[in-house]
Amino acid sequence: MSDFDLFVVGGGSGGVACARRAASHGARVGLVEESRMGGTCVHRGCIPKKFLVYASHFSHDFEDAAGYGWSVGDTRFDWLKMVEAKTKELKRLEGIYRRLLNNSGVTVIDGRGSLVDTHTVSTDDEIHSAESILIATGGWPAMPDIPGIELAITSNEAFDLPALPERIVIVGGGYIACEFACIFNGLGVETLQLYRSDMILRGFDMDIREMACEEMRNAGVDVRLNMNAVKLEESSGGVVVTTTHGDVVEADQVLFAIGRDPNTDGIGLEDIGVERNHKGAVAVDSGSRSTVENIYAVGDCTDRINLTPVAIHEGRCLAESLYNNNSQTPNYDDIATAVFTQPEIGTVGMSEEEARGHYDAVDIFKTRFRPLKHTLTGRDEKVFMKLVVDKADDRVVGCHMVGDLAGELVQLLSVAIKAGATKAQFDETVAVHPTLAEEFVTMYEPDVS
């Protein structure tokens, strides 16, 4: 008899969700984690990033307060105090994760897990047998092979810098690069962002991409498109970056955020026949089963949709299917997401470009305006909202926003999109006034540009 019904390699969001749900259905579950429990989201991603977003936004809030009669006075940001507070909270969250696992009956093992064979996992000096094995090892920041790359940092290290840099170069144009550019800019750091392509945020709706880039530049981020870093050199003043255009820029820190790769090397997958793609992602079917019958994978290590709530959803679906006689497969339709730039982005459903390639005809409704708040602050920051509608049945198939609280608003609107709401139903909805959200139900005329 095996030691466990299910053995999970990785203590991030997906692995923990699956382990707890499986144990709740009576499965004997073991879980191994070599670092801190909670994974990328808790320690190197969502949570600490949002803390830094909050911290960086206060500089704007202090400026805006004057328009409403407030005299804020001198302000000063203490980076080390912020890091200390963040670290304390993450330790508390890790403790909660461990207690939840223990209270669920999961056997938690600290160490590095690797597969010996299709039913055996080694964890440092111990060997564990299992009927089924789940790979939930997440992802890791990718780095380019260029001279001097050892002088750069990734998002992993950005949360614990010994001091706040005065100048930073951020290389990349995805959501992580854009979020950190806004964070450091908001904290008063001279911020240069390099991106090799002609527009940031590839994969998002083009109007959203252009609007976000414009607002980031207006806020002070020096975004340079069609430009990349090709060499880093140490200097007395920090790090010198040479670009594809031959420009030379000196900075105190250089942060690369050019994507993330599945964290699957060195854990024995190749030795037992688990197929991986060119990036190292575990190949899985719709039920998260790998090419080995009893081995599964969820989360970023599969490189499907790399979002924390998706990993949790995949893990719970797998546990239901294996241990509750309740076959479930993850549903990836209309997943809402947010990018915590400043202003932030919220999006759900199809972009205009995707919809035009999928439907015979679409209607586009969009609006751009200065929010009421900034009529008194004087800040030249705009809000942009957009609905994409399948003209054949009037169904809203995409919803996009750049502006304060975009993530919060799109989370709620995603329920309507998921339920198949029509544009007529949006129009029939009475607005809450005065709010930003009311614009989503008062865009009556399609865009004809």
CATH architecture of the largest domain: 3-Layer(bba) Sandwich
Q: Average the pLDDT over all residues and give the rounded result.
A: 97
Instruction: Assign the structural class, choosing from mainly alpha, mainly beta, alpha/beta, alpha+beta, or little secondary structure.
Output: alpha/beta
Distance between the termini: 68 Å
Shape: globular
Percentage of residues in helical conformation: 25-40%
What can be said about the biggest beta sheet? 7 strands, mixed
Give the uncertain stretches in residue-range form. Answer: none
Number of structural units classed as domains = 3
Q: What is the CATH C level class of the largest domain, in words?
A: Alpha Beta
- The number of helical elements comes to 12
What is the H level of CATH, i.e. the homologous superfamily of the largest domain?
A: FAD/NAD(P)-binding domain
Task: Please report which band the strand proportion falls in: under 5%, 5-15%, 15-25%, 25-35%, 35-45% or over 45%.
Answer: 15-25%
Roughly how many Å is the radius of gyration? 24 Å
Q: Count of DSSP E strands?
A: 21
CATH fold topology of the largest domain = FAD/NAD(P)-binding domain
